[in-house]
Amino acid sequence: MRNAVAVGAVALLLLVLAMALAAPWLFPGDPLDMVATPLLWPGQDPAFPLGSDSMGRDVLAGIAHGARMSLAVGVVAAVLSLLIGIVVGATAGYFGGRVDDVLVRITELFQTMPTFLFVIVVVAIGQPSVAVIVLAIGLASWPVIARLVRAEFRTLREMEFVLAARSQGFGHLRIMLQEMLPNALPPVIVTTSVLVASAILIESALSFLGMGDPNTVSWGSMIGEGRELLRTSWYLCALPGAAIVLTVLALNLVGEGLNDALNPRLRNR
Amino acid sequence: MNLLKAGRVLRRTLWQAVPTVIGVVILNFCLLQLVPGDAADVIAAESGSATAESMAQIRSHFGLDLPLLQQLGAYLSNLAHFSLGNSPRYNLPVTELIGSRLPNTLLLMLAALGTALLAGVLLGSIMASRVGRWSDRVLSVLALLLYSTPSFWLGLMAVVLFSVHLGWLPTGGSASIGVQLGEWDSVVDRLRHLVLPALSMSGFYIAIFARLTRASMLEVSRQDFVRTAVAKGLHPLRVGLHHVLRNALIPVTTVAGMHFGTLLGGAVVVETVFSWPGLGRLAFESVMARDYTVLLGILLLSSLLVILANMLVDLLHAWLDPRIQLH
């Protein structure tokens, strides 16, 4: 049962990934172009199965191209926060003392600021482009990883194999990267899928507010534009939103599956 | 735990929070200096008839033309006098602006957090008591679905269902405008406006608390003291509430405190959907208007709220589990 759910989630994720990769071939041309009669309901015209918006843009093409944006932002932002989080967390946990104090303070600083407000401020500093959005989300979400890695490194530091490595005269960097990091990774891997999921949610909220990249389609911006016609054409909001929910759900389910696989303590629950 | 000790702890935590708060102010101050353009630019662009002289006048009036360090120093010295400065855009003291919006946002946040805690703990307890059965499975999937739903989309769909199709609840605002209502009616009216925003904001947190309650109740229920309580012949409900839930609430309250800041950030989006006149909306508007004094004030206040929330969580922990020492 549990396995079936996890396999279903991976399949759904692969489907979204395939859609994202195939979008330029399936729907050539700019998804922001007017191609259809405006405000077609889904199923009204077989050429546009999910209908069209008030500007006559194909909703299905928008969702397919939006998948590229969401996945790309989610994955790259997650990698960025992983990098920052691992470097900060590992350094703090390994060295301890003064270094630890300072790094923990900095982490706390970033955690006391409301994440989404911080992202908005960073996007306002740069221009609303994909790169800036990725940077903003990455900068805002590393503290979770840093805390996790720090906790792992603090326990690992006292282990005998680390002592053995130290007595062999290995350098700090080698001990941290080769000996400790692989042992600290399992909980980090589990958190990564949740990290991608939350990055996708932040990006969608950002573009919903109109702070996304104006030159690309994203699920959030489709919802934001459809909002004007919520009373009459609510499918314009419902469909891209459903795409977000399904993708994020699949990521969270994969995270649960990974957790079950990598955390034997929690098995048989 | 006695009150005296709690008071001492509160004072010490507040004292320890001072460097964090100053850090937040300095970091945000420097960040905001990097944003291209300032309030004078936006005001000039909006009036459409600005001259170089009038812009220079706005800048010098609000100190926007001073060197960076001097501006920071002025801001910090203002802070020491409990003033957050003046907003160039609204031409009002920032404390006044924030003060007019803060009650709305606090109301929304507390309603959302309260709903989320109640519903989440209830759902989680049901799931834990039926672990492995189909009702547990269905609720788990439901919780994960809520966990994956963006709050603004949940809000929009709720508007479609409850306001457009069923016509039960208003679509936005915090109160009906232009109608004279009696005292009781106006309270009901405000509550009716509160329902949808609070619900859409709480969805994500209901899911978090439900999952966490389930996991920690399962963890606690396998411990020796629970077995002892059962063996003593205590009523299962008493064991469930007094022994299991009480201990399981500790991680739940920790996470509730941790998510306080996220809740504030989420207010930006939900307040936009429901045109709720709150702090989140003010923050977004001040980013757009390059009104940094207001934004700095909001960021500072929200950090303070987060610190305060974590402090309350610490006190709550000491009450839930007397073994936890406040130090």
UniProtKB/TrEMBL annotation, chain A:
Transmembrane segments: 71-95, 184-212, 232-255
InterPro entries: BP-dependent_transpt_permease (IPR050366), MetI-like (IPR000515), MetI-like_sf (IPR035906)
Organism superkingdom: Bacteria
CDD domains: TM_PBP2
Signal sequence extent: none
Domain ABC transmembrane type-1: start-end pairs: 67-255
Alphabetized UniProt keyword annotations: Cell membrane, Membrane, Transmembrane, Transmembrane helix, Transport
Annotated Gene3D superfamilies: MetI-like (1.10.3720.10)
Major localization class: membrane
Entry's localization field: Cell membrane
Name of the protein in question: ABC transporter permease
Organism: Comamonas endophytica
From TrEMBL, chain B:
Domain ABC transmembrane type-1: 102-317
Main location (coarse class): membrane
CDD domains: TM_PBP2
Keyword Transmembrane helix included in the entry's annotation: yes
Alphabetically ordered keywords of this record: Cell membrane, Membrane, Transmembrane, Transmembrane helix, Transport
UniProt cross-references to InterPro entries, sorted A to Z: BPD_transp_1_N (IPR045621), MetI-like (IPR000515), MetI-like_sf (IPR035906)
Protein location: Cell membrane
A Pfam family matched in the record: BPD_transp_1
Bilayer disposition of the protein: Multi-pass membrane protein
Keyword Ribonucleoprotein: no
Transmembrane stretches, start-end: 12-35, 106-126, 138-164, 194-212, 248-274, 294-320
PANTHER family the UniProt entry points to: ABC TRANSPORTER PERMEASE PROTEIN (PTHR43163:SF9), DIPEPTIDE TRANSPORT SYSTEM PERMEASE PROTEIN DPPB-RELATED (PTHR43163)
Family: Belongs to the binding-protein-dependent transport system permease family.
Protein name per Swiss-Prot or TrEMBL: ABC transporter permease
Organism the protein comes from: Comamonas endophytica
Taxon lineage: Bacteria, Pseudomonadati, Pseudomonadota, Betaproteobacteria, Burkholderiales
